[in-house]
C-alpha cells in the first residue's frame, strides 16, 4: 500500500478539524432550533399568535461566547487553534469556554486521519 505524503496527512487533519467545528455548531444550535420550531407550532395550534424571535439557524448569528454572547473574532474561531490561543476563555468576559469544542474538533481531526490511514487517498 502506498503511504500518503505528509502534506496529505496535514490537509486531511485540517479538514477533519473544520468538520468537527461544524459538528459543534450542529450540536449546540440544533436543540435550540428544534425548541423554537416546537414552540412556534404549539403557539399556532393554540392560536396564541406569533412571537417574534431573532433569526437563529446553523449560519446566523455568527459564533459567539456562550456566556456573554459577544461575537467571536474570526481568528479566535479557528478550529482548535482559537481555543488554545485564548486558553479556553472568552476574549470579552474571560469566562471559561467549554472544553467540548476542542475535544469534538480534535476527535473529528483524528477520525479523518484514521480514515486516511485505513483507506488511503485513492479508492
UniProtKB/TrEMBL annotation:
The lineage of its organism: Bacteria, Pseudomonadati, Pseudomonadota, Gammaproteobacteria, Oceanospirillales. The keyword Membrane applies. It comes from Vreelandella sulfidaeris. Residues 14-116 form the Prepilin peptidase A24 N-terminal domain. The chain crosses the membrane at residues 6-27, 103-122. One of its GO terms (molecular function) is aspartic-type endopeptidase activity. InterPro entries: Prepilin_pept_A24_N, Prepilin_peptidase/N-MTase. Keywords: Membrane, Transmembrane, Transmembrane helix. One of its GO terms (biological process) is signal peptide processing. The keyword rRNA-binding does not apply. This is Prepilin peptidase A24 N-terminal domain-containing protein. One of its GO terms (cellular component) is plasma membrane. Pfam families: A24_N_bact.
